Amino acid sequence: MASSLKFELFFIYFFLPLFILIFQSKILIFTLLYFVFVFTFLKLRKDKSFKSKALTKKINWRISFIFFLVFLFFGFFYVLFYDPTLLFSFPKNNFRLWVIVMFIYPFFSVIPQEIVYRVYFYQRYKKLFSGNLLLLTLLNLFVFSFAHIVFNNLHAILITAVASPIFSYLYIKESFFTCVLVHSLGGQIIFTLGLGRYFY
């Protein structure tokens, strides 16, 4: 059982990102994301030890707002430090597409990611670490940031490495939808501030 879990973990969280990186295909990124999303969702439904009610806990609006401000503050100064010309470049250059991205990003990107990288990951692989949340969170940080090598730039890896433990904390301590909301807000801030070019 342990060996099959290790193989599955390696295949989903290491092999597939490397496979996408080699072929450098945007279509492949989302195709495989949705494929893994469906696979993990179905596996969770068959897992009798998984309590689906855990996904229906309410959003903590207060902590979501706090992280919104934190992401906005650090994101703003990150762009100013790195390249001020990027600031608000997306909404300024293509407002209609920006609005579309703001709307679809939580549903078509964040929710599949959070099912795969938080819900399934913590449920499925806790057996490998005897439920040690610290080790699981450290590994989750690594695999989540590693997944972003598909975008072939350091910014995507660095930003997701910082965000990953925050998302894990919110999922474990607050709720799935709090995690989804904060992840969505973080991504929307990134796209709005002009860093979105490093995430597609």
Question: What's the arrangement of secondary structure elements?
Answer:
Blueprint: H1 2-23, H2 26-46, H3 61-82, H4 89-93, H5 95-125, H6 133-147, H7 154-174, H8 176-193
Helix pairs in contact: 1-2, 1-6, 2-5, 3-8, 5-6, 5-8, 6-7, 7-8
Tell me what you see in this structure.
The protein is an all-alpha fold and 200 residues long. It has one domain (2-199). Helices cover 78% and strands 0% of the residues. It contains eight helices and no strands. It has helices spanning 2-23, 26-46, 61-82, 89-93, 95-125, 133-147, 154-174, 176-193. Helix 2 (26-46) packs across helix 5 (95-125), helix 6 packs antiparallel against helix 7 and helix 7 packs antiparallel against helix 8. The longest helix has 31 residues, at 95-125. 26% of the residues are buried. The model has no long low-confidence stretch (mean pLDDT 95).
The geometry reads as globular
Q: What low-confidence regions span 5 or more consecutive residues with pLDDT below 50? A: none
Q: Which class of secondary structure composition applies to the elements? A: mainly alpha
The major beta sheet can be summarized as: none
How many domains make up the 3D coordinates?
Answer: 1
Q: What portion of residues belong to β-strands?
A: under 5%
- What portion of residues is helical? over 70%
Gap from first CA to last CA: 36 Å
Strands, total number: 0
By DSSP (H or I, 4+ residues per run), the number of helices equals 8
Radius of gyration: 17 Å
In N-to-C order, the SSE pattern is: HHHHHHHH
Mean pLDDT: 95
Question: Quick summary of this structure?
Answer:
The chain has 200 residues and is mainly alpha-helical.
